Fold this protein.
Amino acid sequence: MSNHLRSRLVAAALASALLVSACGQEDAASYLAKAKGHLEKSNYSAAIIELRNAREKAPDNAEIRFLLGKALLARGEFDAAEGELRKAEALKYPADAIAPAIARSLLDRGDVRKVTSEYGKVEIADPQGRADLATTLATAYLSQGDRDNAKAAADAALAAVPGYPRALTVRAQLLAIDRDLDGALKALNGALAAAPNLAEATLLKAQILIAQDKRDEAIKLLADAATAAGEVPLAMQLRSALVPLLIASGDVPRAEVEVATMRKSAPKDLRTSFAEAQVAVAKRDYAKARDAAQVVLAARPDNLPALYLSGLANYGLGSWALAEDALSRVVRQVPNSVDAQRALILTYLRSGRPQQAVEAADAALRRVPDDPLLQRLAGESKALTGNAAAAVRHFERAASLEKTGVSARVRLAQVRLAQGDTARAISDLEGLATADPASVQADIALYAAHMSRREYDKALAVLANVEKKQPGAAVHELRGNVMLAKRDYKAARTSYAKALELEPARLSAARRLAGLDLLDNKPADARARYEKMIEANPKSESLQMALAETLALSGAPPAEVKAVLDKAAAANPDSRQARLALVAHLRGTGDMRGALEAARAAAAAMPKDIQVLETLGALQLANGENAQARATFAQVAELQPGNPAATLRVAATYVADKDFAAAIELQRKVLAAQPNYGPAILALAATQIAAGKSEDAIAEAKRIQKERPTMALGYALESEILAAQKKYPEAAGAMREALAKQPNPVLAARQYALLVAAGKMGEANAFAERWTKEHSKDAAFLSLVGQQRQAAKDTAGAASAYRAALEIDPDNVVVLNNLAWLLNEQGKPEAMELAERAHGLAPLNASVIDTHGTILIARGDTQRGLAMLKQATNLAPGDSRLRLNYARALAKGGDKAGAKKELETLLARTPSPSKMRTDAEALLKTL
């Protein structure tokens, strides 16, 4: 080919290309026209492509921006939709069209409060736009529990456009709430007749069908609608509605299938993550639920449904602070959300804050007085705070509200049992157990009642009935518990082994067997059993923890225990339990630096976990890292702004640095908010004295007394300052004034101690008698009185105080343990029962194990007693008191070599001079 010809061909090609290019250059109007055609066919994906091309050509065209926002809204891209619509608004697109669209974008992404605050008073002239906005407002109001405004807005929408489908759907919701299901279905059928693809109407109809026990029909309705939906957004909306309905109906596997479809078609859609969180909660995979909910919250920090799921997930994980934060935010914004209120109350209960649970339950019941579960939770809360009479009233109310009332009546019987109404309680439980041939709830409560009364044969008879109703591993384990209480260890082992045979992963039975192995001095058997279970479930944190516990109790080398706990933490990096167990183990073995590093690693993995942060702060303080401890405790204070103890911990770091002025400033801040907070009063006095400002402290106390003459603060502060100067009579006099102003349990306990320190035992006992008569539910005061009397060798008085405390708080481990020790010294058989109860409540408390072991030896069961004393020293190797007790028991049992070894270990760790060292040396000389 000649060069001339080639150049002509190239020129022709260029001309052709330029011609094609010129023909392909469309203007914004052309793109807009194509987009409108796609929108008429509900082909939103194609419309968005054309509209974005048009936007590139004409970025300031308000109509293009508006239509693009509407198309994005239909596709479920709510943030992008709002951005385009806001731009259209700025470009002066007609407000009658813009306001309803922006409100819809806010509603669809969950910003219901913003909808009502921003658009609640906006007026629209166009009837269609007015109906649209009013319906959006109605839905937002209803989401916040405001039924009155929701009804008014729905009525306004229907007045603007009679038969408006979305408004009919809201009206149906309101009718359904009022239990007018027929009326609700009529409204929904009208909505669907006008708009067959209206997802919210389809969803609500499905919910009503489920309420009418037509589950299959409801699921088919939604599934068919999802399958028929051509555009991904509509299908996503229907499937995201179908998932919770499937979960609520118990069909979690089918819900998982739907979520998988959502994940395949729209993996980045927040509705997919939300649905994954719902399924994970249903499956109790709380870590996955937390992570999935967090994906939604990262984009929508105030999304209430995601906050609720996050709260449930963190509750399931035992992260109480995070659960409380999420759930309380939901309750604050939606006070009528019964589910969120229940979960928040449960969070308070499980995290050991019954008083907050009482307050939350009372607030919830003011709004929803006829919810039986709320009534039961209120009863549970008040029972834990010692208000048994109120608890009974709540349980009675719950029983009357429930169709069968079994749960409430069982709990009512349990409360009556705790109150001493034994005959009536057991009679009620027996009647409930007989009345329900399938449920074992009443049977189990009856079993527990007999066990608490040491009626072991009756407990076994109840279990025989349970086995007929629900045979399985649980009944064998319960039978093992009875045999263990009867000290028939062989029969107990047989029952536990049977339970484990039926359920090879049953950890509770394995732990019982491990305990028997250790008592029989066969730790290798326990270890082998756990290792076999771990092989079947290598990621089980609980099994790894149980193995570590057994190794520690058997005296295995600390490094071996640490290796197991490291595995548990590695397999479960977000688990507080495994990490804190590792910290506690290292601390118990004296490796404070190792414990600190483990706590740092835990805080890095869980930066908002209160318990982890408090542990880290305490270790930093113990290791002299005062500034780091201050920063850590400040984090805690930020996470719990209403917790005065957190602020006091920050103040303690300043005290450690001898920056007394900063510490005093914080302590005063706490007292300004809570003037009668006892720990802050004590801390302030101690800090002022440590600063060498006793006279200034007294002057400040006097000033407070003058400025707040009706409050206890000034007098209590003066009392503590005088006590620090060992002026106990004067201190008791000042504390008497404080109590006269404001009776307070903390101050009362302090007054008793001051009277004892002043040598006024008669007056102290008279005060104690008077206080307990006037404050019959103050178990903490009685416990302190018991300890003071025990120290003063007033055995009878101490026992009396402990017994009174147990009547109020029967599961108080400290009181149970102290009373058991006291009664054992008197040779009373009741000591064994109390020790066993304490040990059951605190199986890893070294002091409790020591008491139990000592009593076993006193009762002639030397082998098992010595095994327990050894466990106690293994758990707390640095506790010289426990080691000396173990040495004495070994010497008494004839094992002089063993006793000598323990004493030598003790003496190597005990400074001189000290009474502990003197006692150990005296015993060593006898060997």
